[in-house]
Structures are given as structure tokens and as C-alpha cells.
Amino acid sequence: MIEALQFEFMRNALLAGLLASIMCGIIGTLVVVNRIVFLSGGIAHAAYGGIGLAFFFGFSYLWGIMGFALLMAVIMAAVNLRAKQRADTIIGVLWAVGMALGVILLDITPGYNVDLMSYLFGSILTVSTSDLWLMLILDGVVVLFVGYYYHDLVSLSYDEEFAKVRGVSVRFLYFSMITMIALLVVMIVQVVGLILVIALLTIPPYIAEKYSGSLSRMMVYAVLLNLLFTTTGLWLSYHFNLTSGASIIMVAAVCFFISILVEHLKPKSSVTTN
Amino acid sequence: MSNPIIEIRNVAFAYNGETVLQDVNLDIRQGDFLAVIGPNGGGKTTLVKLMLGILKPDSGTIRIFGAQSRKAVSRMGYVPQDIHVNRGFPISVQDVVRMGAFKGGGGWRPFRKKDRSDVRRALERMEMWNYRSRRMDDLSGGQRQRVFLARALVSEPEILFLDEPMSSVDTKGQTDFYDFLLELNKTVTIVLVSHDAMVLSSHAKSVACVNRQLFCHDTPEITKDMLEMAYHCPVELIGHGLPHRVLPEHTED
Fold first, then answer.
1. Is A217 contained in some domain?
2. Which residues of B touch A212 (CB under 8 A)?
3. Which position has the higher pLDDT, A31 or B247?
4. Which helix (H) or strand (E) holds A243?
5. What does the DSSP assignment read for A176-189?
6. Roughly how many angstroms between the first and final C-alpha of chain A, as a whole number?
7. Residue B132 in domain
8. Which chain B residue shows the shortest CA-CA distance from A173?
9. Using an 8 Å Cβ cutoff, are B134 and B92 in contact?
10. Spatial CA neighbour of B154 closest among A162, A31, A89
11. B73 contact residues in A (CB cutoff 8 A)
12. Overall domain count for chain A
């Protein structure tokens, strides 16, 4: 691994892993405790439509993803708030429509020859320095926002009814959270890709939750776990010449199953000794 | 009893086009212990949410301390139904109670020294201070309920709303909890929602039956008419005439 660091692309890849880990750990924690994993998956996949738009009209794919992911995120969040009973169905439809739109737009784009797979499964080894700057800015925005509204988010996530009574602006925070997911999709597309992002969003918080006494600690543990997964996955992909995104996810998956196994083997803790 | 602190006039509310409440009129006076009973889906929780300002009535007015609900937030305490709480969420007893001192709207350090001492006082009052660092998941139903009550009491409310507070509490815990509510009622007006008519037998000062409409009594007595109107089916009242006991105590179910 050390000798790999002499390559700029490898240094960039590691930094990208670090920056993505921070964002995924923090947002993933909010996604998991608020049970909006499906919604997040919907946004990530539908964002593919943005890639199609970007290539068809010839602008940067990052702007395409950001715009389209944000649009989808807002629609899905509104559906989730207004028509909760059928929200999952509608999100599922948008999920597929977004991807189909992307594929068709790429079909009819003249002279198109970009590797589709890199957007779906990530290409962390092609992260450029300017990409890193964008990631750093997005990380900063998310850290500052979550830090400032931390207690609002705790209140909302734990007990929405009570939060409303106490004057927490549920709607504002909800849309902010969804917006952050859309921003995350933008930066994660190169690291693990649109399809695999859901694993980095859910696995670390799932493991972290059991060992955390507070939401902030859960976020920190999730970030550290993400860091472990991305670095280990990257090393494996370098060493065995495997696809980086998939390697990262497989490392996460192995840890996920180990954590479930540990959970089952552990003697059940008795509830309250008074 | 003095002036009404809550005045509800001709309130109607519909959810997805379906009428939940209509023609609701209600006065709640200072020092009252109002039991809100009625069948499931009859609109009890909706009524409480309207009073708290979580929901807005489609028509009619609700005035709390002579003003709109939003302005009276700091004077109202709320213990929501246990089922709304996010199970498995990593949070300590202390942090839950702290929510009661939090006003929302962000901030880098939203809690002051006074908030910390208020939290401590509320937890001590509910005899839960020793559990402050425990995770909520590790508590029993009765203990959790006391923490939620502590959270509602942090801001020293003048009126306290409890929505089905007993759903996850065992019988012994329920008795203790009601005793505490009685003690609390000396200084705080209480509105208690329950689908269980038993609660009022020995605690409530007045009763409101809610089933789309509202039928109110200034005494804790439930009349046969009231129950029939509320539940839309003939109800047999047992033990009628016993003072402060609507139905005889169950020995064994």
C-alpha cells in the first residue's frame, strides 16, 4: 500500500475515501434512524437521469447529477410527506423512471462512448483534485449544518410529535436532510457509484447504532467504520486488481454479517435491573 | 375552579377529506383533570394535537391562555403516545429530558446552565436521576414513561397533555403513575387521553367523550347516554351509583 501512495491517483483515491466516509457516516446515520433508506436509494438511482441529461446537452455530469438528484429528492420528499400511504410505490416508480431516462438519453446522444459502469459502480481511481475540492466543500456544508441543527435533528428523529410541539421546524429539517442526501449522491458517484452508495449509507450506521449512547457518537463511529471499509477495500482492489467500489462494499458487507453474528452470540442483556 | 384556560369553539377537522372532528366545543378550566375517552379512531389524539397546535383546525377557534397555541408552547407540556417514539434510537435518559428544554431553531450551544439544573430537577422529581446516563432502550415501560413525564415537566408547564400514557406500563407502575399525576394536579392542569374508561373512576375531575363529536361532563361520572353517544352502541353500566366508581374493579380478566 505504501508504494502505491507514490501515485497521485492513489493519494486522491484515499482522500476521496476519507471525504466520502465523513459525509456517508453523518448522513447515513440520519437516514438509518429516520428509516428513509428506500427514499435514499430512490434518489441515488434516479440521479442516473441526470447523467443522461448532462451528456445529451453536453454539460458537466456533476451538475447533471446534482440538479436532477435535487429535483428528484424534493419530489420524493414531498410525496413522502403528503401521501405517506403510497410513498414507497411512487418513489419506486421515480427510481426506475430516472434510470430509464438516463439510459435512453445516452442512447440518443451522438458519439456517446463513456463507460456506463463507472457511474453505476464508481471509479475512485479517477478522482481528480478538483473533485476533491468539491467533496471538501460539500463535507464542510454538511458538517456545519448538522452541527448547528444537531439538537433539532435529535428531537425530530427521536420523537417527531414532541419536536413539533417544542417548535422544531420539522418540514425545513426534513427537506434539508433530503437535500443532503442528494448532495451526497453527487460526491459518492465516483467513489462507489450510484448503485452501491446505499451500502455505505446503511451498513456503518447499522453497526454503530448498537454501540452508541447518542446520535453524535453514532455518527462518529459510522464515519470511522466507513473509513475502515473504504481504505481496506481500496487496498484489496489494488492488491488483487479488483473493482474498487465493489471491493469496498464487500468489506462492509463482511463486517455487517460479522456484527449480526456477534449480536446473536452475545447473551441477551436483561432489561433493567432496578 | 376559575376561568377557562383552553377555549375550543366550533372546531372541525378533516383528514384526507374524512371528517375526524366536528362541532367541538370545550372549556378547560385551571386545575382541571380532564379525561378524554372514546373509541379508537374517534379523534381523541387529533383533539389533543389541535390544542397543542400540531394540527390546525379546518374551522373554528382554539384559544390557549387567551392566545393561539403557538404562543403558549412554553406553558404546555406534552407526553405523546409511546408508539411515536423511535425505538432503537441511541439516546440517553438525560438527553431525552433535555429535549423538553430545547426550543428548536438550531444553535451551537443551545443549552444554558439553567437548562441543566432544570433537567436535573425534573429527573429527580420523577426519581429517575440515577438512570440519567442509561440508554432509553434499556429501561422498562414504566421507567420510560417517567422519563417522558420528566421531559414534559422540564419547562414547568401550566397544563399537561398525556396521550395514552399507560399503554406500555404494568399495573403497579400505572398506580404509581396516577398517584403522581394526582399530586401534580394540585399545581398543573391535566388533560389525559385514554381509550380506557377506568382511568377516570378515581382520578379525573371531568370527562370528555370524543367520537367525531364531543360530549362533556363536569363530573367524573359517565352516563349511559354519554357512552352510547360516544361509542354508538348500547353500553351496560355496571355498578352505577357508586360514588367515584363508574365500573366495579376487575378482579381477574
1. yes
2. 90
3. A31
4. none
5. HHHHHHHHHHHHHT
6. 52
7. no
8. B105
9. yes
10. A162
11. 165-167
12. 1
Length of chain B: 253
**Residue A157 belongs to some domain of the structure:** yes
Look at residues B104, B221, B11 and name the one whose alpha carbon lies nearest to residue A163.
B104
Q: Please check whether residue B153 is in contact with residue B180, taking contact to mean a CB–CB distance below 8 angstroms.
A: no
Please give the tally of structural domains in chain B: 1
The answer to whether the Cβ–Cβ distance between A158 and B89 falls below 8 Å is yes
Q: Which domain holds residue A154?
A: 3-265
Read off the C-alpha cell for B221. 361520572
B103 and A CB contact within 8 Å: yes
Q: What is the CATH number of the domain that holds B10?
A: 3.40.50.300
Q: B216 and B207 in contact (C-beta within 8 Å)?
A: yes
Q: Which residues of A touch B96 (CB under 8 A)?
A: 158
Contact state of B99 with A161 under an 8 Å Cβ cutoff: no
Quote the pLDDT of residue A112: 62
Residue B117 lies in a domain: no
B51: in domain: yes
**Cβ of residue B41 closer than 8 Å to a chain A Cβ:** no
Contact B115, B98 (CB under 8 A): yes
Residue A95 within a domain: yes
DSSP, collapsed to helix, strand or coil, labels residue B18 as strand
What is the C-alpha separation between A153 and B91, in angstroms, rounded? 12
pLDDT at B227 over 90: no
Residue A270 lies in a domain: no
Comparing CA positions, the residue from A105, A52, A50, A53 lying closest to residue A72 is A50
pLDDT for A225 beyond 80: yes
**Which position has the grid cell 363508574?**
B246
- State whether residue B158 is helix, strand or coil: coil
CATH assignment of the domain containing A224: 1.10.3470.10
Residues B108, A218: C-beta atoms closer than 8 Å: no
Identity of the amino acid at B117: S
> Per the domain annotation, does B183 fall within a domain?
yes
Query: Which tops the pLDDT comparison, A180 or B205?
Result: A180
pLDDT > 90 fraction of chain A, expressed in percent and rounded: 57
- What integer best gives the mean pLDDT of chain B? 81
ipTM: 0.83
Residue A262 has pLDDT above 70, yes or no: yes
> At which residue does the C-alpha cell 407526553 appear?
B79
Q: Chain B window 14-33: which residues touch A at a Cβ cutoff of 8 Å?
A: none
Report the gap between the CA of A195 and the closest CA in chain B (Å).
27
User: Which domain does B76 fall in, by range?
Assistant: 4-88+158-231
Chain B contact for A11 (CB, 8 A cutoff): no
